[in-house]
Amino acid sequence: MTPEIEKSKMMNVSTGLTLDELNEEETQYYMGGTIFVGILAATGIIGNIHVLLIYTFYMKQSNHRIFIVCLGVLDLITCTIGMPFVIVNFRKPLTFTDDLICKILTFYNFFICLSSACVLIVIAVDRYRKICKPHAKQMSQKAAKIMCLVAMVIALLFSWPALIMYGSTPAKTRDPFIDGRECNLLIEVRSTMYPLIFNGLLLIVAISSFIILAILYTVIGKVIWKHRSFESKTDDTHTEVTGVKDTTDHGFKSVTFHSGSSDEITSQQTSQVEQNGNEEKVTETNGSAKKSPRRTSLQTKIEMRRRSSTGEAVKTSGNRKSLQKALSKFDRTKRTTMMLFWITIVFFISYVPYLVLRIVFYTNPNWYPSMTFTGKVTYNTLLWCVYMNNMANSVIYGFCDQRFRQKAIYGYQRAFCRQKWSVQPS
What we know:
elongated; 6 strands; two-stranded antiparallel sheet
């Protein structure tokens, strides 16, 4: 409230305006927020519908599919219910008279925000086990669904006080003879310790979530970095991996792990042939002739080396395929982890401005009323950056998940082809 308005109130001077006209004046402070939240809602509805359709009907069953569908449902409901409620609140800053709607939707916004934070912690734990503990028992799909429900129960326990503390409450206007009503903390609650306790608990939950996620993703990042370093080293060398002893009549033992050039491998095989050729008898394939160790000729050595090389090559090829399959699986897990990591980053980037502005607002009651018009518009716009993550998740999937992009393109191609065939004359 400006000093002129305060002065007019003290002098009990009527503005001559009606409540609706005063309300219309007040909506100007929320002009930027209305446009911003409206864009987020429209974009989020389109994006999250795509997410739910593609991940529900086109993606195979997996934990990360369950988590993304869960986040997609929360985001879509927020875009269709939570954000429109905020826009209505922007349009009725002094004429919001529906107490029940105010309670339910304020509670819902707290619940959705806390649910998303708790689900992100569950996702981080699942990623940690897959990346850092790949051989330990992993979270099953049933357990993933249960953990999503547990996350929502925890969010419910922390957000239910909003049903009691918020509602349609009297609001001062710049006309001393007219009072409006706004959706905010009830007047009878503002002078108690309950708002401080409620917001303090939310702050503790937010900070705890920050710390837990930072620790988990730091550990995950170290493991991924080590894996990248290992890949860069092995790209320039020829790697042989076998784990089975040769049980053929030559009696050669396969190499357990070797990384080096092909010349080194040939040298090792040649030395094995020479060593074993001087110690053991060589049995021909038809079993009719046997040669003594002393009569081992150059031709026999070459034949032995060829057979051993062929046998080891088969075993090495099989083990290399197993190694490549394991590395490919790890790479897919790594890409999924990075995608979910960016979702977490965007969530907290969008949540921090809201948290900081609210803390300043409650600790300094004169801060907002003393703002200029531009300052109030900026405040009421930045405050709702908290909804950015509900829109941004679908954008992150589009950039980070190649399968999501492919399925989206495939779906539009099918829809376009069906439409094309349907309009053709019979």
